[in-house]
Amino acid sequence: MKILIVGGGMGGTILANNLARRLSTELRSGKARITMLSASDKHMYQPGLLYLAVGRMTPDELYRDQRSLLEPGIDFHVDPAEEFRLDKNEVRTKGGKVYGYDVMVVATGSRAMPEEIPGLAENSEMFYTEESAVKMFRSLQKFQGGKVVIAMGVPHKCPMAPLEIAFMLHDYFRNRGILDKTKIHYTYPIGRVHSLENVAKWAAPEFDRLGISYETLFNMKEVDGAKKIVRSEEGTETDYDLLITIPAHRGMEVIEKNGMGNRGWIPTHRHKLNMEGRENVFVIGDTTNIPISKAGSTAHFEAEALGENIAAMVKMGMPVREYDGKVFCFIETGNDRATYASFDYLNPPDPKVPTRAIHWFKLAYNKLYWASARGLL
Amino acid sequence: MANRKIVDARGSFCPGPLMELIAAMKAAQIGDELEILSTDKGSANDIPEWIRKVKHEHLETTEENGVWHVLVKKAK
Prior knowledge:
The complex is a heterodimer.
Chain A: E1 2-6, H1 10-22, H2 24-29, E2 33-38, E3 42-44, H3 48-53, E4 63-65, H4 66-69, E5 75-78, E6 81-85, E7 90-93, E8 98-100, E9 103-106, E10 110-112, H5 120-123, H6 130-142, E11 146-152, H7 161-176, E12 182-187, H8 197-210, E13 213-215, E14 220-224, E15 229-232, E16 237-239, E17 242-246, E18 249-251, H9 253-257, E19 281-283, H10 296-316, E20 327-334, E21 337-343, H11 356-373
Chain B: E1 4-8, H1 16-27, E2 33-38, H2 41-54, E3 57-64, E4 67-73
Parallel strand pairs in B: 1-2
Antiparallel strand pairs in B: 2-4, 3-4
């Protein structure tokens, strides 16, 4: 069975390694073959960007050589997919090669789109690329006090990022001794401070305690850089001295160009993880249109479920389990403390009181991630 | 005569239905009615709250077989 994995991010990498271990005998005998196509020979630990933006990590800590993370039996190519020929079970790459498959997994991820809001890209700081996170840190270092506005669009990668950046900025300004000259103002698109109701119930009093003000039902419409004002679709506006944004995301352009999903999100069965209407095409990570978190842990748990299923399809001709919607997110809450949200399709999260132990575990996970990507954790 | 448009956001979870409504509202004309369908219970609270803030006209919210129908008129 020819297994083609398109995308070398967290989901694709965990899946490839999971499959390579489960199918070691089949890979040796030639009964199975795993091919991965990726746009880069480097693998980025994306959650580290949040730390980079506040000066707690450096860029080199975010990367590993992709080949070094993959099991030896995986056929890896730095040559991104350009054309999906789903009816022929093949993919043409940017380099012009054509790869056939029996089973394909699409894990191409998502991208932040600040350019969709007029004035946003030019007048804000964000942390969704290495370059933008370093630029944000540079702006923070120059900042001497004033009003910091956090504004976002949905969906976005890492549902906890809005809360975490608010808490981490509070820490950052306090540590620099300019908290008394700084006001943090948080905005959120729906009628509470987080989309997960229990997380919102926990976070709003934390904001009150720390003096972080907030406006809910605030959907960015445009940014007036000359006047330093963000206007909302709801007709309100807020002024800022420093604007931090978590822009709305879209799936990758190649998905949109191939007509596989509106805004780059591929319609995906929430339990079986197959692309709607395609039995041999699966989708994991940010690329799905499943209305759960676009988070590394979602990709991780989907990859584990799918790895088990594809291996079972090779060995016995059918899948053996369903993805239950499991997600686990750490939440950095500042002051060297953290908590977490663990949930699935049926059970909502219930964040506990933040502790130093969870914060230290998160810092440890920033290193352990590489074991996770290798499929060991 | 005002148009009525159905915004079918069934199967989408919060904040999906609200985002669908915001997008549809941008494209609508003043006086148009939009009926948003949602299977997410949170939408039954969120959407009327948004309508109040934006000062459109919330006509009614009904529930039928697990689907919430929120009817709103674009007022400005």
